[in-house]
Amino acid sequence: MIGQALIDGVRETVGLAGDPSSIRIVCAMSGGVDSTVTAALLKHAGFDVVGITLQLYDHGEAVRRKGACCAGQDIHDARRAAAALGIPHYVLDFESRFKEAVIDEFVSSYLAGETPIPCVTCNRTVKFADLLQRSYDLDAAAMATGHYVESRARADGSGRRDMFTPADLSRDQSYFLFATTQAQLDYLRFPLGGLTKAETRAIAAGLGLSVADKPDSQDICFVPDGRYADLILKLRPDGAEPGEIVHLDGRALGRHDGIIHFTIGQRRGLGIAEGEALYVVKIEADAKRVIVGPREALLRKDIRVSGLNWLGTDAVGRHETPLFAKIRSTRPPVPGAIRQTEAGPMVSIAAGEFGVSPGQACVLYDAAGSGARVLGGGYIARS
Q1: Which residues participate in catalysis according to the annotation?
Q2: Angle at CA 110, nearest 5°, toward 107 and 113?
Q3: Which CATH number is correct for 299-380, 2.40.30.10, 3.40.47.10, 3.30.70.100, 3.40.640.10?
Q4: Entry pTM
Q5: C-alpha span between 167 and 200 (Å, rounded)
């Protein structure tokens, strides 16, 4: 069972005054263990919980593959979990919206020579905009998700909330939530931020929930086999126009079957035979050209970002603001600074970073490690 200390912790995390039974919270339920335990914690803390699951895409293929999120089996698991918890549950068909906002943008980004991160787009549009609006429509006081981040109220009494990295850094999902606006953050709650993944599974097992041992999703949900190029070609048959592979020094080294097969920093599968180790250092989409070079050519110290979502207290100005920056979800944040330039916000990395890829995110923190405040972030722009 769930102990009183944990229940008190959930109520403190929610941070809403009044009788919990009179406070409605919508819980986004994907059918996985994290969102299911989130709903369970809120229910045991006495809140009026409503579960909502989104059908986001044609799951005919993914339904047969374990590890793909939001598929038919996941919808079934979410419905069964809600029934076990005794909470109302709704499935909303957002398939057309998801295709327009997430899948089409994913394809366009690849065709532009970028490396997109559709999970950020999904959070920014479908989940934290469209679903959040449905939560408002249900008169919910907050919406909760199973993301591993922390949210805390500011001590100034403003009612504003800040986002922090979680206790379990191996599960940190703040990179994918950098685009969460201040208004959204004030409404959202993340009850798992203080737990480890092992603790989450233990809670599920203790409650006898069927998803306690369910594997985590591993792939982008709408590409269950991981073959991005196949999806792009299905939607955009013109996306595989051949072109040249060119060395930084100007030498033509070979031909390729489409820029969609390449990402910045890629070393394997280039289709060329050279004595030196070569990496993709630039993709010129308009010219259908892939530029390769030595690893040192990947090092960048200045990163221009677009679509900056700034959650810091003070605005970004012409003078550098010290911070920590993270350019890939799998990398730790490193010391840097941000400043405003004529070309837009510029993040400088003190020691430089390798493989800075347009389309990925540059997420900003006030420190490194657990409990670091998320200052926002933006998309890495092309040089």
Answers
A1: 122, 221
A2: 155
A3: 2.40.30.10
A4: 0.92
A5: 12
